[in-house]
Amino acid sequence: MHQERSLCRKFEIRSGRRWLTMPGNASTIPDTNVILRYLLRDNPEQFEKADHYFESVRTGREKALLLESVLVECVYVLTKFYKIPKVEVADSLSALLRYKGFVNHDKSVLLEALALFAAENIDPVDCVMIAAGRHGNMKPFSFDKGLNRLFERLRESADRK
């Protein structure tokens, strides 16, 4: 049997398959639609299932991982399709991410990205990049001069504190 070598420590090889090692023993990954049904309450049957699930996550009985890609997709759908104000979207998703059962190792980065999204006029993906850079003491390498200026402004204001 051919044994593969993993180039990334996040993956383990078992029986020829790759299994992602979840932080904090997460057992579930909610998708965008589950989060949307929970926040919007627009489909009673799906909301009931989502509500039961997120109550378990809120109390910590269920351990879950909220993927960055799912979070960003939620932001896009809620602001662009449903036309919900970005401050309300950021507040709702931040409250959700603070549930005890979310075991993301990057939770503080995602919360900062949501706060940036609410406060600044920038794309949510750029918010994640800026927040990750600030937490990792890195700066963006970008051709977007506005993004670079914003990063420097935020860094300077943090240095003054």
For the secondary structure, the number of strands is: 2
- Estimate what percentage of residues fall within beta strands: under 5%
Please give the domain count. 1
Approximately how much helix is present in the residues?
Answer: 55-70%
Q: What radius of gyration results from the CA coordinates?
A: 18 Å
How far apart, in Å, are the first and last alpha carbons?
A: 58 Å
Query: How are the strands of the largest sheet arranged?
Result: 1-2
Number of helices: 7
Give the uncertain stretches in residue-range form: 1-18
Estimate the mean pLDDT confidence: 88
Sheet having the most strands: 2 strands, antiparallel
List SSEs in N-to-C order.
EEHHHHHHH
User: What form results from the Cα inertia axes?
Assistant: globular
Would you tell me the structural class of the helices and strands? Answer: mainly alpha
